[in-house]
Amino acid sequence: MGIKKNLITSVSLLKTVPNAFLFLLIILVLGIILFFQRHIFFYRYEPEYYEGLYYHSQWNYPNSTRGISDGELYKFVGYRLAEGENHFNINYEMPPFGKYLYGLAEKYLGNPYWISIVLYLFSAGFLFLLGKEILKETSLSLLGVLFFLVTPFVSTQIGETMLDLPLMFFYLVHAFFFVKFLLKRQQKYLITSGLFLGLATGTKPGIYTPFVFLLESIIYFKQEKERKVVGFSGYLISVFAGYVLAFFCYFIKHPNPIPWLRLHQKQFSFYMDPLKLSGPRDYLLVWKNIFSNSYQGWWWTKEKTIGGASLILPVGTILLLPVIFLSFKKREISIFYLSCLTCVFLLIDHFVFFPRYLMPTIPFFILITVFFLKKHKQFLFLLSCLSFPFLFSSLSARNPVGDVEAVGRFFATRAYHELYRSTIPDERKNLSEKQFIDSLEYFLETLGTRDIKTELLELKNDSQSAKAKYKVVYETKYGILSHEPEISFLKVNNQWRQVWNWDLLWLGYDPSAKIITREGSLPLKRLQRSDGTILAERGKWQMVYMFPRVMFDWSKALKSLSEVIGENPEVIDLRLRKVVPDHFVRFAGYLDPALGQEGIDKANLISGVHLREVDYLVIKGKGNEEVSRIIRSIQKEKPELFCIKAEVVMQGKNEEEKVLPLQCSEEKDVKIII
């Protein structure tokens, strides 16, 4: 009996949760969210770095190993827009307003995340106000805000610069003023609602806008009794005005609206591309994401988990139809409108879907849930409590595997700028980026490095530190060199950062060390026929290096390289794409020995080509393409015969020399008879 009595008492207390307690709980949760994402307060935008990142990314070099994510792209584009760049010249496929807001924060505050924080807090504020309008009770509105804050789907967006958070905010404010119009019947609210619908359309492609507009038009004509056409015309004009306002960054430099209208054809053509419209589609993806927190796109080979599980998605979806029925029956026009608006988003997401596209529905799902359970506050509070562990795990449990693997990938692709920024910030104060890059490039180029392979062998970690063991294999001009360095990682402001150690390159190496090479010759001396006819003999020839960054017409450049190297463009393409297109030349292949001096002259005419002398097989005579193919075939089967025999030593500060154990053929003056 005592246990039953205590349980009843606890439930009764939950039914009357004090507003002050809820407010303090909201402040506490908000503090936890900001604490675990505190790295955003230490961020500083670097215009030069992001310009290099963008112009070397997949947006300029298809399939570039130096990829740029959407969030990083919007940082760069936003800054360029704030600097006066024409929107239709860069990332025109996405409307500019959200990016422009981030760019203004970067330009004047040095940090775009302040916009994310402001939009997040304002979203919580407008959710509270909208809840007050619909639910008429402060405690219910506060419970809605608490539920909003503990939803990982939204709260993790503070640490992002995506367009989904601005889009959610503008649709939420739009819905708030439309509800105000439905309740007050004042034209100013309808006009303001239209403005924010226009701003939402100017933040991400307006795939929802026509259907939202249609829904609200039907409700408007059903509810309004007088001056319908005049009021509706004002609403229509305000939507267009909001969309024009979203292009403020364009009009301050280009006030003529005619080119602006015409240039929309670029955006339309981008999305109407048959390649983008075709392809397989799974129309159940939206439901899989809502109910199982998983997503598998056609470009992914396996199922992915999307962030932390958010209870509001399945709960709100289950309650959606009952709330539509109840609100229609009780003539609760405001909640009926929000439920129908949520259905519009879900309907469109069936055809164009990525998990983030559910963001605008989160505030509406919360209000739907609160409305349905408004007489059972204890269950609302319980749902918020159940959501908190998912939020906490999303913010705090950062597994270092992704960051550790990224370091290996940065090194293997020679992404020096990203490798530098993966180190502890305090270490960078004593090591300039130029010195860092020059030291890496010196070591790798002195060895004649053509390829780097990295593999994570072992990872040990606790909550604040980690130690990773890699296997690093260099394919160099002098043979194969491999070692297994150990690198330490620390968690700094809840982000994993490597403790930079030059041992990643080679044990004992540092910027003061010298790499000394004492070259011998190619192990392969001669290629001849069985009758003694010499087809090719060891001699001085040329390697072809290329500046990938000047391959503006990639296909044309590959074709030109293929003609002088003698290999398929696909082979050269894979070789060049392996490395980040930066300020350095990269190995493209050996000049086709069948071309002779004519090949050297032709290669020098290709923009971006740099030739380097090397020991190789020189064909006796000209135009012998068959011999050239035989040489490449032998090189593929026995690459060790084409490594230059050399003694390579590393000389430290005390001039002590350590021989690098390069693996090359031990044979000398090899003759191959065919």
Question: Would you write up a description of this structure?
Answer:
By secondary structure, the chain is α+β, with helices and mostly antiparallel strands. It has three domains: 14-389, no CATH class; 401-513, Nuclear Transport Factor 2, Chain: A (Roll), CATH 3.10.450.100; 524-642. It has 28 helices and 15 strands. Strands 3, 4, 5, 6 and 7 form a five-stranded antiparallel β-sheet that branches. Strands 9, 10, 11, 12 and 15 form a five-stranded mixed β-sheet that branches. Strands 8-13-14 form a three-stranded antiparallel β-sheet, with no helix packed on it. A hairpin with a 5-residue loop joins strand 13 (646-651) and strand 14. The protein is elongated, with a radius of gyration of 32 Å. Mean pLDDT is 89; it is low at 6-14 and 296-307.
**What's the domain count?**
3
Biggest sheet descriptor: 5 strands, antiparallel
The chain-level mean pLDDT equals 89
Q: From the alpha-carbon coordinates, what is the Rg to the nearest angstrom? A: 32 Å
**Net shape:** elongated
